[in-house]
Specification:
By secondary structure, this protein is of the alpha/beta class. The strands form 2 sheets. It has a 4-stranded mixed sheet with strand order 1-4-3-2, covered by helices on one side. The chain has a 4-stranded mixed sheet with strand order 5-8-7-6, covered by helices on one side. The longest helix has 12 residues. It is globular.
Length: 124
């Protein structure tokens, strides 16, 4: 049996602020707010042809933003542009950009909610 990540839930304190941040920084499309198990959730719209897990921004009692937990890695085409948009949108640069390998550049940002989000850009 393999370990396949199917879905990621990003904890947020303010769903509207987080939606604006992810739409501005990543150009993400975020769907309407849904109430699931008493929590407010907004799912990222995905293209079924693209690789990756589904994800949602989640606000509720059990969702606490943190820089100390698991780190979500997001593929980007231009890490410098994403870093600039992140800081302009109220985020912060936590690390990098630095080469991880000869073919991969990485950086980490703090999002509008206080989560650590890693960025990964192929080189070459």
């Amino acid at each position: 049996m393999s370990f396949a990540v199917l879905h990621v839930e990003i904890p947020v304190g303010d769903l509207d602020r987080a939606r604006a941040f992810y739409e501005r920084v990543f150009g993400a499309r975020v769907g309407a707010v849904e109430i699931i198990h008493g929590n407010r959730m907004a799912f990222f719209e995905v293209d079924e042809a693209e690789m990756g897990a589904s994800a949602a921004l989640c606000q509720g009692e059990v969702y606490r933003p943190t820089r100390d937990g698991a780190i979500l890695y997001v593929a980007v085409d231009d890490i410098a542009a994403v870093l600039a948009r992140a800081t302009a949108a109220g985020g912060s640069i936590l690390f990098g950009p630095e080469p991880a390998t000869a073919t991969l550049l990485v950086a980490e940002i703090g999002d509008s909610e206080g989560n650590r989000i890693a960025l990964q850009q192929p080189l070459g």
